[in-house]
Amino acid sequence: EWDMLDSYTIPDGKNPDRYSTARKLARVVPEKSKFRMGVMTNFVFEVSHFVRGWDNYMRDLFKHPNELQKLVKKIMQFYYNCADQLIAMKAKAIFTTDDWGSQKNILISPSMFDKFYAEPYKEFIKYCHDHGAFFILHSCGKINKLIPKFIELGVDALQLDAPHMVGLDEASEFAGKICFFDCIDVQKVYPFASPKEIEEEFKRMACKVGPKDGGLVAIDYFNANSALNVPWSTIKAFERAVKKLGKYSPNGYLKLISVEKCEL
Q1: Which of 13, 41, 156, 193 lies at a CB distance of 3.0 to 4.6 Å from 197, suitable for a disulfide?
Q2: φ, ψ for residue 40 (rounded to 5)?
Q3: Residues 181-207: tens digit of each pLDDT
Q4: What is the pTM of this model?
């Protein structure tokens, strides 16, 4: 409740016990040969509505803007502390998640995003960049209206589990302006497609958002077989398609996929 705001304390992002697994991974993943990505918990939009509850939060946007801004400021300190710990372990990117969209649109208006979240995003992304780390954002939903803002604020890569919600044709408008960090669409394609269809889908995705100078990082959905019931034959078909169709940069940590000839 808002009468608890002044006494509300955020978790201790500096607590070393939070990073025991990360420290073990940092010791076994070679810094020079592998890309280290530090993964944080849900980011500030999600946590602010988790803390308040969705119905309360939607009213807060209009009825309690000052309190909400104060809460957002408090919450942000947690992420700075997390980033410090992960960057100290030589993380080359900070990854976090804010699901900004429903199936059809963004969850709050662009003006509300600007009012409450644009500046916290901008300052945190700059902090990551100043400390030598990329900023990678996962976001589900039809988030098209916010992608130009993400680009403006400095988001380096946008991770989409269901690229069809944005739309591959629509996403192509932003190709080369932001890196897409995509898997095969988990809602409409991956669990249902044949191996041949998976290759065609990946080629289309690479053609749409992987321009010749890079722009697509292809990833598999975590535990696709158990979580989505994707057959192993389909997973292997996706791996073959990535190796077959991608053209990879010889330099840098990221293997940016770019298809030279796109004949769909």
Answers
A1: 193
A2: -95, 175
A3: 999 999 999 999 999 999 999 988 988
A4: 0.90
